[in-house]
């Protein structure tokens, strides 16, 4: 892709920083009333509204968080926005603006950054957020991309991590483990490609899980659904590192325990078949895999009627008193302590 000599390559030096920023951002519009001034001055200007503002930021580093040998730049741009919007939605807020900061080495031509910004533009359009600024600089090696996202929420609607109470139901959106298994497939194809560059991988049986890895979607729809159902989560977090560590975060912040039922964990059939193929335990993949960007939240028991049967939501457990600990209740009805990595027998002793 990047190395393709047939493609047009315009070196970044030819444009200069101002030309580059203007070129990349010329088609972005401002759609939110709170965006008073976007790109083009020393700072963006936002209207402070009747809402509370939420703000979150993430830094993605080439070779650490993404691998451009299988991550198309358009997808990278899209995903960099998604991981931030996911954090905004995890506060039960509406995402409104982003900034994008980039460091790129001169190995990237303008066309590569155009692709990256195509992905960013698509994310802004699909999720109705305004790009209001950023920063652009060079790097010695590789690419860094940092996105900051802002959102708005009514103070009473904010869902912190610390609001879960004993007997609250633990609920997750969508299904889990797909992004991790997609990564396994992509890593395997990369190794095959290294040995035989002419091989044409057939990824079609894996399209769902590969898409979960390369084009995750933040769950804006779930925040809207909960508002429609008039359910306010007592606590909420997004699943970036795996179900287990996110449950531990909610439990610890809230000062409660948790029982998670193995047989309730939602898994797509393609995740189950990929786990069989890779000889991995699907429960462990869901618990430790990460990057699913689903929402994990707790609701009061009395809200069960409002959420039950919704195809987007699965009740996977309930919260307990803190002294009962956080456990996985297996299919065989054994209780195993959860750890940040999954469960106890697989953990190394470094973490709690
Ligand atoms: P300054 O020198 O004051 O940092 P810049 O020249 O970096 O200003 O930025 C000029 C304008 O372009 C600012 O509004 C800034 O937010 C915006 N901008 C810079 N880089 C990016 C980028 N990568 N994406 C979006 N907007 C950017
Ligand atoms: Mg700058």
Give a structural overview.
Mg(2+) 1 binds at residues 57-58, 135. It catalyses: thiamine phosphate + ATP = thiamine diphosphate + ADP. Mg(2+) 3 binds at residues 42, 87, 238. The chain starts with 11 loop residues before the first helix and ends in a 9-residue tail after the last strand. Mean pLDDT is 93; it is low at 1-5 and 345-352. 34% of the residues lie in helices and 24% in strands. It has ten helices and 14 strands. The chain has 352 residues and is α+β, with helices and mostly antiparallel strands. The longest helix has 18 residues, at 110-127. It folds into two domains: 16-157, 60s Ribosomal Protein L30, Chain: A (2-Layer Sandwich); 169-344, PurM-like C-terminal domain (Phosphoribosyl-aminoimidazole Synthetase, Chain A, domain 2), CATH 3.90.650.10. Helix 1 packs parallel to helix 3, helix 2 (73-89) runs parallel beside helix 3 and helix 4 crosses helix 5 (207-214). The protein has an eight-stranded mixed sheet, sandwiched between helices. A four-stranded mixed sheet has the order 3-6-4-5. It has a two-stranded antiparallel ribbon with strand order 1-2. Bound molecules: adenosine-5'-diphosphate (ADP) and magnesium ion. Adenosine-5'-diphosphate binds at residues 21, 25, 39-42, 100, 102, 131, 133-136.
């Amino acid at each position: 892709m990047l190395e393709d000599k047939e493609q047009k390559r315009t070196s970044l030096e030819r444009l200069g920083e101002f030309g580059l920023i203007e070129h990349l951002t010329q088609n972005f519009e401002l759609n939110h009333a709170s965006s008073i001034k976007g790109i083009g001055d020393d700072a963006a200007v936002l209207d402070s509204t009747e809402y509370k503002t939420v703000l979150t930021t993430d830094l993605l580093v080439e070779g650490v968080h993404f691998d451009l040998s299988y991550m198309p730049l358009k997808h990278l741009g899209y995903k960099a926005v998604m991981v931030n919007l996911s954090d905004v939605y995890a506060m039960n807020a509406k995402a409104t603006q982003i900034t994008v900061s980039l460091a790129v080495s001169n190995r990237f031509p303008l066309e590569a950054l155009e692709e990256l910004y195509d992905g960013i533009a698509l994310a802004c359009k699909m999720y109705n957020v305004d790009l209001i600024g950023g920063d652009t600089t060079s790097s010695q090696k590789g690419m860094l991309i940092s996105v900051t996202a802002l959102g708005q929420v009514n103070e009473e609607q904010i869902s912190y991590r610390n609001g879960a109470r004993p007997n609250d139901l633990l609920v997750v959106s969508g299904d889990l483990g797909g992004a991790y298994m997609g990564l396994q497939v992509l890593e395997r194809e990369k190794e095959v490609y290294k040995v035989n560059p002419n091989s044409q991988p057939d990824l079609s049986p894996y399209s769902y899980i590969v898409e979960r890895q390369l084009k995750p979607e933040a769950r804006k729809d779930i925040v809207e659904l909960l508002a429609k159902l008039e359910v306010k989560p007592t606590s909420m977090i997004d699943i970036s590192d795996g179900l287990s560590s996110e449950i531990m975060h909610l439990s610890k912040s809230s000062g409660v325990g948790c029982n998670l039922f193995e047989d309730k964990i939602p898994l797509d059939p393609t995740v189950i078949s990929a786990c069989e193929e890779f000889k991995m335990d699907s429960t462990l993949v869901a618990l430790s895999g990460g990057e699913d960007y689903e929402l994990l939240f707790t609701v009061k028991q009395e809200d069960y009627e409002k959420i039950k049967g919704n195809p987007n939501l699965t009740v996977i457990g309930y919260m307990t008193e803190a002294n009962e600990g956080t456990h996985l209740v297996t299919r065989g009805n054994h209780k195993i302590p959860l750890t940040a990595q999954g469960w106890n027998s697989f953990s190394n002793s470094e973490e709690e």
